[in-house]
Specification:
This is TonB-linked SusC/RagA family outer membrane protein. By secondary structure, the protein is mainly beta. It contains 13 helices and 59 strands. Strand 39 and strand 40 form a beta hairpin.
C-alpha cells in the first residue's frame, strides 16, 4: 500500500493555523486606533442645569467622561452656582463656560487640576490687612511617588490632610500641588500600596510606598464575578503573576507548589515542556480512572472565564502522556491566580467543580501612557542529584560471575562464564570487552540552557485599554535530543463605548514543539544510564554506534542504543493552541447589567514517531523493519455564557448583588492515527514511504454538550455581615438519559468583627473575620464521552472482518459524583497588619464514586465503570505572614503555610480489600487507594532465600503463602512551605522551603531491574546490591543471586516501599530594582535585574531520584529527572 496518503484535512487545518490564525487573532488590534484618536478634554458630554453648584457640574463630567477634579478650596469655590445647557459638547468647552477666563486647568490622564491664573492668584492672596496666619505663607509642593524599589507609581493620589485639595501623579510618578500650608501633612495613596502620611516641611517630597500585599479592599476574582477579601464568604487564595513569572517552569501550575494552602502539586517528571504532574486540592475527591490522562483529579482551570482543557494533547503514540498542555500558556501573561476551595467559592461551577477551581486572570492595560516592556531570562539546568550509585565494571563482573556460580557451579566455570558473556556482549578483535563507557556523560548534556525573551506593550485611557505580548522560549533538555520550544502571542482589548456599554476581546495563540527522544520508554534514555551493562560500548572500534544490545533474561531481549535512537529516530509533538473570548456588557435601568461572552479553546496536535529500520523497535519487537506513526488530535471547546446582574446599595447600609446566568458548552474531539512498517531505507520518514505497509490505523470523533442554569445572591449589611448563596443545574451528555441532570448549591456567612463598635477599643487587632459555608458540587470528568455506550471492536482473520464486544460494557445508569462540603474559616491581622493569620477547617464527603469494578468471566467482559462508594476528606489549613522587622528601608517578612488532610473510604459497594492493582487496594475506613503489599521480612541467613510474613505472623520463603496487608498510602499527612523575604532599599533576597511528610513511595526502578537478585542478570545494579547473601550465616540485606531468578525477592512487597518525607530548598532569588533617579538619563522608567537558584537542595531518606516524581499510584520509575537550575534575567519598562 505504498500509495497510502495521509488524511488531508488535518494538514490543511495545520497550514491554516500556521499562516492565518495569528493574523486573525491580531485583527482586533485595529480597534486600538480609536484609543489614541482624541486629545485631552475632547470627550463629548451633555451638561444641563439652572443655578446649580459648580460641584454638580464636575460630578456630571466625571460620570460621563471619567475625569477627577483637583483644586485648592481657597482658589475654587465649588459651591458657586452656575447655569449651563450644553449638549454633546467637548469637556474643555464646558469648563470654559462654567469657569470663565479667571482659571486655568491642566489634564493629566483622567485628572483635571484647576488653579487661578497667576494675576488672579496674586489678587486673591493679597490680604486686606496684616494677619498672622500660616495661610499667607502657602507654597507649591512638588515631588515624586515611587514604590519601595524606586519604580514610579503613576496615578497615585496626593491629598492635603483635612482638606479636599489634592492632585494625582503623572506617568513618571511626579506631582505638583499649589496652595499648601508649610505645616500641612500630605496623605499619599495608591491601589495596591500602603497609605502614607508625610509632613510637608519643605517644597519637595520624595515618597516611597510599600506594597499592600493583603489589601482587604482589593478586587478578588471569583466565580463569574469579583468581590473583595473583606466581603468574601468563601475560602480563596490569590497568587499574583509577578510571584511566578520568573520561575523556570514552562507551566504555571508547577509554580504554585507551596504557595497555596491545601493545594498539593507533584511534578511527576522534569520533561521539557512541563510534563504531566498531579494537582490535588484538599484531598482526592473522585474515584475516576485516568480518563484522558491524569486530569480527572485536577481542579477545574478557568482562564479569563473559559474552562480550558487539561487533556494531555501531546502524547507518546505508543506510550503514556509526557507533556502538560498548560505549558502552552505563557505564565508572564498572568495577572492573578485565584484558587477556590470551599462550597461558597466553587458551587457556582456546579458539575465541574468538586475538585476545586483555579481561576486565571490575564493582564490588561491601564490608563495612561503606553508602556513598553522587555523581559529576558536565561536558565542553566543540570541533573540535580548527579549520578545514581551503580556498580562499576569490576563490581558488576564480580556480582555477575557469582550469579552464574550460584545457579549451577558445576556448569558455570570461569571459562564458561566468560565464553557466554562474549556471546552476549560485543568484544574487540583480541576477545576483550570494550572499555566501560560513562553512560551519564554520553546521555546527559551536562548543563542545558533555556532562553526566554518577550516584549509587551500596554496602555489605554479611561475608555480603552489594551495589552499585547509576544514571547519565545527555547528549552534544551538535560538528556540529549530533548527539548521544548514555545512561541506565544496574547492580545487583550477592552473598550467602554459609553457609561452603559463596554466590549472586549481576550486572545492567545501559541505554537509548541516538543522533542522527547524515547524518554518515556521504560529502559530508554532516562533509565539507560543506570540499567545499561558496563560491558556494552556506545561505539565500536570503527567509531560507529553499536546499534542494538541484548540484555535481561535468557531470552536476550534486544535494546536499541539510546544515542543512536536519538540521532536516527524521530519523536516529536507539534501543537497549536488558541484561546479567545469575545464579550460585551450592557447596563440599563440603573441597577441592571447584562453580560454575554463566547469563548473558544482550540488545540491541534501533530505527533510523529519514526523508528529507524536499523534499530530495535519495541512495538513490533523486531530489528530491520522500521516504523512510522503519525497522529492528529483536534480539540475544540466552545462555550457561551449569559449573565444578568442586579447591584444596588441602599442607604449606605445594605448592598445587594443578584446574578442569574445560563451557559452552554460544546466539546468536539477528533483523533486520527496511521502506522506503517517496512521502511526500505533509513532516511524514509513518511507514512507513504516506498514499500511501507499499513500496520494499524484508526480514529475517533466525539461530541459532548453541557447545558447549565445558575444563580447567586449576595447581601452585605453595614460592611460587617455578609450572606451568600448560589444554585446551579447542569445537564451533561456524558450520562444516560435517566442520570443526565444534577443540582448543586451553596450557602455562606461572614462576620467582620472588627467593624463592630465595641472592637474600636482593641487597637492591636486591625482585622478579624469569621466565615463559614456549606454546599455541594459535582464531577462529570470521572467518566469519558463513551462510558454509556457498548463499544464494539473489529478484527480481521484470514481476510474476513469480524465485529465483537469490547472488554467493558456501557453503563447508562452511572450517576454524577457529588461532593458535599462544609468549611469554617478565620482571618485576622494584628499590630497594624504586621501579623496576618488565616485558618480553615473543612470536611468533604464525596458520594457515588465512579470507578471500574471487575465482572465475572461468564459475563464476557472484564470490568465496568460504576458507582462504587463514598470518600471523606477532612483537614486543616493554616497560613501566617509576619513582618519581623519593618523599619524604614529595611523589612524582613516570614510567611508560612501548613495543610493537613485525612482521606478515607467511608462506603464501598465492592468486596472488602478490593484490589486496585498489584500494589494498591481499598477498604472501608482506610485511605483511598492505599498500598496493599506483602511484608518483606528480609533474608534467611541459613540459605539466603527471601522471606515475607505469612498469615500467622511468621516468616516464610513461599511468596504465595505470604499475605498482603495495608502498609501505607501515597497521599501525605501534611505539606507546606516557609518563605523568608528580606528587603533593604531596592535590594530583595527571598528563599522558599517546601516540605511533605507522612506518605510512602514505591520505587519501581529498584524492583525493575536495579535491585532484582539476578532476575535481570545483565542489567546493572545499584550499590546496595553488594550487600547480598554469599554463604550460610551471612546477615545481608539482599538474597542470594540466581541467574534469571523469577522466584527471588524482587516480587511486589514492602522491600521497595519507602517513606517519601522530604524538605526541599525550592528557590532563592536575589533582585535589585534601580531607583528612578538613576534611570533618568537612559529613557527607562524601571529596571529590575535578578538571579535565582531553583531546586537547590533536598533532604530525604528516599533512595531514588526524587519522591516528588511519583505518579498517581505513588510509584516512581524512570521519569525524566528533576533538575537544579540557575537563572538570571531582567525586566525593563520603557
Amino acid at each position: 500500500m505504498s500509495n497510502f496518503t495521509r488524511p488531508t484535512l488535518p494538514t490543511r487545518v495545520s497550514a491554516f493555523c500556521r499562516r492565518w490564525l495569528p493574523m486573525i487573532l491580531l485583527a482586533p488590534a485595529a480597534v486600538l486606533l480609536g484609543a489614541w484618536s482624541f486629545q485631552d478634554g475632547e470627550e463629548k458630554v451633555t451638561v444641563k442645569g439652572q443655578d446649580v453648584p459648580l460641584l454638580t457640574v464636575f460630578k456630571s463630567i466625571k460620570k460621563q467622561a471619567g475625569y477627577n477634579f483637583f483644586y485648592a478650596a481657597n482658589f475654587v469655590n465649588d459651591k458657586e452656582r452656575v447655569s449651563v445647557d450644553m449638549q454633546n459638547a467637548r469637556v474643555d468647552d464646558v469648563l470654559r463656560k462654567v469657569l470663565g477666563h479667571d482659571y486655568t486647568w491642566v489634564y493629566n490622564e483622567n485628572a483635571v487640576s484647576i488653579t487661578k491664573k497667576k494675576e488672579e492668584v496674586k489678587r486673591s492672596e493679597a490680604p486686606a490687612a496684616p494677619v498672622k496666619d500660616s495661610s499667607v505663607n502657602q507654597i507649591t509642593v512638588s515631588g515624586s511617588v515611587t514604590d519601595a524599589k524606586g519604580a514610579p507609581i503613576p496615578g497615585a493620589t496626593v491629598m492635603v490632610k483635612g482638606t479636599h485639595d489634592g492632585a494625582s501623579t503623572d506617568e513618571n510618578g511626579h506631582f505638583s500641588l499649589a496652595g499648601v500650608r508649610p505645616n500641612a501633612v500630605l496623605v499619599i495613596s495608591s491601589v495596591g500600596f500602603e497609605k502614607r502620611e508625610i509632613p510637608v516641611k519643605g517644597k519637595t517630597i520624595l515618597a516611597k510606598l510599600n506594597v499592600s500585599v493583603n489589601d482587604l479592599d482589593e478586587t478578588v476574582v471569583v466565580a463569574y464575578g469579583e468581590t473583595t477579601q473583606r466581603a468574601n464568604t468563601g475560602a480563596v487564595t490569590v497568587v499574583r503573576g509577578e510571584q511566578i513569572q520568573n520561575l523556570p517552569n514552562r507551566s504555571f501550575d508547577k509554580s504554585l507548589q507551596g504557595m497555596v494552602p491545601g493545594l498539593q502539586i507533584t511534578n511527576g517528571t522534569g520533561q521539557p515542556g512541563g510534563g504531566v504532574g498531579n494537582i490535588v486540592l484538599r484531598g482526592i475527591a473522585t474515584g475516576g480512572e485516568l480518563v484522558d490522562g491524569t486530569t480527572v483529579r485536577n481542579p477545574l482551570i478557568v482562564i479569563d472565564g473559559i474552562p480550558v482543557s487539561q487533556d494531555p494533547i501531546q502524547i507518546r503514540i505508543s506510550g503514556t502522556a509526557i507533556s502538560n498542555p498548560l505549558s502552552q500558556l505563557n505564565p508572564s501573561d498572568i495577572e492573578t491566580i485565584t484558587v477556590l476551595k470551599d462550597a461558597a467559592a466553587i458551587a457556582l461551577y456546579g458539575s465541574k467543580a468538586s475538585n476545586g477551581v483555579i481561576l486565571v486572570t490575564t493582564k490588561r492595560g491601564k490608563s495612561g501612557k503606553t508602556v513598553f516592556s522587555f523581559r529576558h531570562q536565561t536558565d542553566i539546568a543540570s541533573r540535580w542529584k548527579g549520578e545514581m550509585q551503580v556498580l562499576d565494571r569490576q563490581e558488576y563482573l564480580d556480582l555477575l560471575y557469582e550469579t552464574y556460580r550460584n545457579t549451577d557451579p558445576a556448569r558455570w566455570t570461569d571459562d564458561a562464564i566468560r565464553a557466554d558473556l562474549q556471546q552476549k556482549f560485543p568484544v574487540q578483535a583480541n576477545g576483550d570487552f570494550y572499555p566501560a563507557p560513562n553512560w551519564y556523560s554520553e546521555l546527559y548534556t551536562g548543563d542545558a540552557t533555556t532562553v526566554t525573551n518577550e516584549i509587551s506593550m500596554s496602555g489605554g485611557s479611561d475608555r480603552n485599554n489594551f495589552y499585547l505580548n509576544v514571547e519565545h522560549s527555547d528549552q534544551k533538555g538535560i538528556i540529549r535530543r530533548t527539548g521544548y520550544k514555545r512561541t506565544s502571542l496574547r492580545f487583550n482589548f477592552e473598550n467602554r463605548a459609553s457609561d452603559w456599554l463596554k466590549f472586549g476581546i481576550n486572545t492567545t495563540f501559541s505554537y509548541n514543539r516538543q522533542d522527547y527522544s524515547n524518554t518515556s520508554d521504560a529502559f530508554q534514555t532516562n533509565g539507560i544510564a543506570e540499567v545499561m551493562s558496563p560491558l556494552n560500548p556506545v561505539r565500536l572500534a570503527d567509531g560507529n554506534y553499536m546499534l542494538n544490545y541484548e540484555w535481561g533474561t535468557s531470552s536476550a531481549i534486544p535494546l536499541a542504543n539510546p544515542l543512536a535512537a536519538a540521532e536516527y529516530n524521530i519523536n516529536r509533538n507539534t501543537s497549536y493552541r488558541g484561546l479567545a473570548k469575545l464579550y460585551g456588557e450592557v447596563g440599563f435601568l440603573k441597577y441592571l447589567r447584562f453580560t454575554s461572552n463566547v469563548g473558544v479553546d482550540f488545540m491541534l496536535t501533530e505527533s510523529k514517531e519514526k523508528v529507524d529500520p536499523r534499530l530495535f523497535d519495541p512495538v513490533n519487537y523486531s530489528t530491520g523493519v522500521g516504523r512510522v506513526e503519525e497522529m492528529d488530535l483536534r480539540n475544540a471547546n466552545i462555550i457561551n455564557t449569559n449573565i444578568l446582574r442586579f447591584d444596588r446599595q441602599i442607604n449606605e447600609k445594605h448592598i445587594i448583588n443578584i446574578l442569574l446566568g445560563q451557559e452552554a458548552q460544546v466539546l468536539n474531539r477528533k483523533h486520527l492515527l496511521v502506522s506503517v512498517k517496512g521502511l526500505g531505507l533509513p532516511y524514509y520518514d513518511q507514512i507513504n514511504s516506498p514499500g511501507a505497509t499499513v500496520q494499524r490505523y484508526g480514529g475517533v470523533s466525539t461530541r459532548e454538550t453541557l447545558l447549565s442554569f445558575f444563580g447567586q445572591a449576595n447581601y452585605a449589611f453595614r460592611d460587617r455581615y455578609f450572606i451568600s448563596s448560589s444554585l446551579r443545574r447542569d445537564g451533561s451528555s456524558r450520562f444516560g438519559d435517566r442520570k443526565r441532570f444534577g443540582t448543586y448549591w451553596s450557602a455562606g456567612l461572614g462576620w467582620l468583627i472588627t467593624s463592630e463598635p465595641f472592637m474600636k477599643q482593641v487597637p492591636w487587632l486591625s482585622y478579624l473575620k469569621i466565615r463559614g459555608s456549606i454546599g455541594a458540587a459535582g464531577n462529570s470528568a470521572a467518566i469519558d464521552r463513551l462510558t454509556r455506550y457498548d463499544i464494539l471492536e473489529i478484527s480481521t482473520f484470514q481476510g474476513n472482518v469480524a465485529v465483537y464486544p469490547g472488554t467493558s460494557p456501557g453503563n447508562p445508569d452511572v450517576r454524577w459524583e457529588e461532593t458535599f462540603t462544609w468549611d469554617a474559616g478565620l482571618e485576622a491581622r494584628f499590630l497594624q497588619d504586621r501579623i496576618i493569620v488565616a485558618a480553615d477547617i473543612y470536611k468533604r464527603n464525596t458520594s457515588d464514586l465512579i470507578s471500574r469494578i471487575n465482572l465475572p468471566q461468564s459475563s464476557g467482559y472484564y470490568s465496568v465503570l460504576s458507582n462504587i462508594g463514598n470518600i471523606e476528606n477532612s483537614g486543616v489549613e493554616l497560613s501566617l505572614s509576619a513582618d519581623i522587622i519593618r523599619n524604614g528601608t529595611f523589612r524582613w517578612n516570614v510567611s508560612a503555610n501548613w495543610s493537613a488532610n485525612q482521606n478515607k473510604l467511608t462506603k464501598a459497594n465492592v468486596p472488602s480489600a478490593a484490589t486496585v492493582n498489584n500494589k494498591m487496594a481499598n477498604e472501608v475506613g482506610r485511605n483511598y487507594n492505599s498500598f496493599y503489599l506483602k511484608k518483606w521480612a528480609g533474608v534467611n541467613p541459613a540459605d539466603g532465600l527471601p522471606t515475607w510474613i505469612d498469615s500467622t505472623g511468621k516468616t516464610t520463603s513461599d511468596y504465595n503463602a505470604a499475605i498482603r496487608e495495608f502498609v501505607g498510602k501515597p497521599q501525605p499527612d501534611g505539606f507546606g512551605a516557609v518563605t523568608s523575604t528580606l528587603n533593604f532599599g531596592n535590594l530583595e533576597l527571598s528563599a522558599m522551603f517546601y516540605y511533605q511528610y507522612g506518605f510512602q513511595v514505591f520505587n519501581s526502578a529498584l524492583a525493575n531491574p536495579l535491585l532484582t537478585d539476578g532476575r535481570y542478570p545483565y542489567a546493572n545494579q545499584v550499590k546496595q546490591a553488594l550487600d547480598r547473601w554469599q554463604k550460610p550465616g551471612d546477615i545481608a540485606s539482599n538474597p542470594r543471586r540466581m541467574l534469571n531468578n523469577t522466584d527471588g525477592g524482587d516480587r511486589f512487597s514492602t522491600r521497595y516501599l519507602f517513606d517519601g518525607d522530604y524538605i526541599r530548598l525550592k528557590n532563592i532569588t536575589l533582585s535589585y530594582t534601580f531607583p528612578g533617579n538613576m534611570l533618568g538619563w537612559s529613557g527607562l522608567s524601571s529596571l529590575r535585574v535578578y538571579v535565582q537558584g531553583n531546586n537547590l537542595a533536598l533532604w530525604t531518606k528516599f533512595p531514588g531520584q526524587d519522591p516528588d516524581n511519583s505518579d498517581l499510584t505513588g510509584s516512581t520509575f524512570y521519569a525524566y529527572p528533576s533538575q537544579r537550575s540557575f537563572s538570571g534575567g531582567l525586566n525593563v519598562n520603557f
